[in-house]
């Protein structure tokens, strides 16, 4: 029996989806589905939902962007400053994350996953407890001191969806 520690999982669901043209956090009910999966594994889930008006959209505890934040890097930095736990980030727009990929992410050591294309997936970073991150608007700079975790075996499951044609392709492949 493997004893996996309880993590604080932060689902990033407050962004403006200008390229997508619609709210990515609401597509496929991805935030609530991910919340259910994570809470069923006894992890604490908080949704970074942007503004207070969005909190009704999610059935998890919500955290609101600081008023002076202008980037995701600033939002994550502020959250880490307020929570002295190991934190696992999850984006709301990785619609291919299945339970096996979620499990792999949950057991990764602190660091930033690197996908099959060699891209660093900052929105899936594991932030160690008590980490003193640099202040930055950029996630790349924010996580520059963290280790990198090779996760190319997860393939296309680590793909962020940013355009409507990706959704069309996803819908066709699910038929």
Walk me through the structure:
- With 175 residues, this protein is of the alpha/beta class.
- The chain is built from 5 helices and 7 strands.
- It has helices spanning 30-40, 72-82, 99-106, 139-142, 164-173; strands spanning 8-12, 44-50, 61-64, 87-91, 112-114, 126-127, 148-150.
- The strands form 2 sheets. A 5-stranded mixed beta sheet has the order 3-2-1-4-6, with helices on both faces. The protein has a two-stranded parallel ribbon with strand order 5-7.
- The termini are far apart.
- The model has no long low-confidence stretch (mean pLDDT 84).
Question: In sequence order, what are the helices and strands, one letter per element?
Answer: EHEEHEHEEHEH
How many beta strands in the DSSP annotation?
A: 7
Based on Cα principal axes, name the global outline: globular
Structure classification? alpha/beta
- Largest beta-sheet characterization: 5 strands, mixed
pLDDT < 50 stretches: none
Q: In which order are the strands of the major sheet placed?
A: 3-2-1-4-6
Mean pLDDT: 84
Termini separation comes to: 38 Å
Question: What helical percentage do the residues reach?
Answer: 25-40%
Number of helix segments?
A: 5
Radius of gyration: 15 Å
SS strand fraction: 15-25%
């Amino acid at each position: 029996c493997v004893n996996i520690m309880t993590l604080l999982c932060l689902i990033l669901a407050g962004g403006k989806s200008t390229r997508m043209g619609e709210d990515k956090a609401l597509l496929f009910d991805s935030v609530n589905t991910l919340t259910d999966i994570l809470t069923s594994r006894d992890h604490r889930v908080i949704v970074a939902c942007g503004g207070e008006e969005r909190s009704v959209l999610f059935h998890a505890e919500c955290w609101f962007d600081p008023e002076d934040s202008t980037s995701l890097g600033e939002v994550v930095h502020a959250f880490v400053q307020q929570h002295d736990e190991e934190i696992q980030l999850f984006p709301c727009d990785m619609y291919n994350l299945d339970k096996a990929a979620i499990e792999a992410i949950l057991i990764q050591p602190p660091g930033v996953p690197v996908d099959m294309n060699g891209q660093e997936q900052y929105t899936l970073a594991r932030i160690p407890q008590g980490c003193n991150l640099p202040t930055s608007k950029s996630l790349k700079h924010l996580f520059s001191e963290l280790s990198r975790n090779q996760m190319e075996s997860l393939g296309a499951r680590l793909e962020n969806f940013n355009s409507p044609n990706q959704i069309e392709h996803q819908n066709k492949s699910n038929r």
